[in-house]
Amino acid sequence: MFLELAAKRYSCRAYESRAVEKEKIDRLCKAAQLAPTGCNKQAPRLFVIQSPEALAKIRSCTPCHFNAPVMLLVCYDSGDLWHRSYDGWDTGYTDAASAVVHILLAAADEGLGTCWVGCFDPQKVKAQFNLPSNLVPAALIPVGYPAQGPSPMHGDRLPLTETVTYL
What we know:
Low-confidence stretches: none
CATH superfamily: NADH Oxidase
Structural class: alpha+beta
């Protein structure tokens, strides 16, 4: 059941050093591809960071890598977005967030740990990976098998009566 999957997923901050199978990473990428985007523009772009050299580069851009064996860099193509006609707002971060949520839940379903990382230097990421100017780094996702010991940090949730208003 979906709510059981959502309840078991947590932000993992410690990983085993073992590799993640390519088939599992491919399914996470497929989950991201299936995420909804503004007017189906499909702006998110993923980079699977797993070689020792690439991991060293991304780890220089964030303190929140948790030594995961894989990092996913989620970007969006700023030249391929839907813009709201009323004020020009675009769907870049919304589209990226949709892909991230799909990845996080797919990873939990695969028995993998993840953490949504926003604490990184986007300009350094662009420089380290020589990203074109139209790609905007939006999120990092460490991926791996959770290490024994760390516990979920999200704990109790506010009651729905404090977070939902019916009008």
